[in-house]
Design brief:
Blueprint lengths: L25 H25 L6 H12 L5 H8 L3 H13 L3 E5 L7 E5 L1 H23 L3 H18 L19 H6 L1
Antiparallel strand pairs: 1-2
Length: 188
């Protein structure tokens, strides 16, 4: 059966319904998710633009990785970004010159260089995260409580399916209450 996106819907008759509406084929769900991600990318970009920063999207991605992975090595940053160490090193040179991050020698292994944000880098990342959170709250406030609950259920299932399920200390997902802030997740 063709759908509104001109693709054939793959839907196994054995797939259970979640109870949140009609059963959706994989292709339809993928197309809708791609559209939603484009909207999210727009929200993400607005936060960076709001501060008039000259930090490129690639630099912002690197700063995000450094921020969420304390003590990450140059090699680790390169791997996370899907590039080679020499490219990551040049990227770090530019961010170091801008005063956003610094290189440090690992205290246990003097041959290992770790990366850390400066106070200016931390302030920029905090401001961008806060702006993103406000923009997301605005968008989520336009949804009904039922739709928000369905979205959270879907996000948790998607994270699980991609192998990125995040757990608390007890191993349970945070499904109720207020979500942890990026800072509290990093410190946990």
């Amino acid at each position: 059966m063709d759908n509104a996106y001109g693709q054939h819907s793959r839907q196994s008759p054995r797939e259970p319904s979640s109870g949140y509406g009609p059963v959706v084929g994989v292709d339809d769900a993928a197309a809708l998710l791609a559209e939603a991600l484009e909207s999210l990318i727009t929200v993400w970009g607005r936060a960076q633009e709001a501060f008039g920063t000259t930090v490129s999207p690639t630099q912002l991605r690197a700063l995000t990785i450094i921020s969420r992975t304390p003590g990450v090595s140059l090699h680790g940053l390169a791997q996370e970004m899907g590039t080679v160490s020499s490219v990551a090193s040049r990227l770090c040179d530019r961010m170091d010159s801008a005063g956003l991050m610094r290189r440090e020698l690992d205290s246990d292994n003097r041959r290992k260089v770790t990366l850390a944000l400066t106070s200016e880098g931390e302030a920029l990342m905090t401001a961008i995260r806060e702006r993103r959170a406000r923009d997301l709250v605005t968008a989520l406030s336009a949804m009904s409580a039922t739709d928000r609950a369905a979205l959270v259920t879907g996000i948790l299932a998607f994270r699980q399916a991609t192998g990125h399920a995040q757990t608390d200390n007890g191993g349970a997902h945070r499904a109720s209450g207020s979500p942890q802030s990026p800072t509290s997740r990093r410190l946990a």
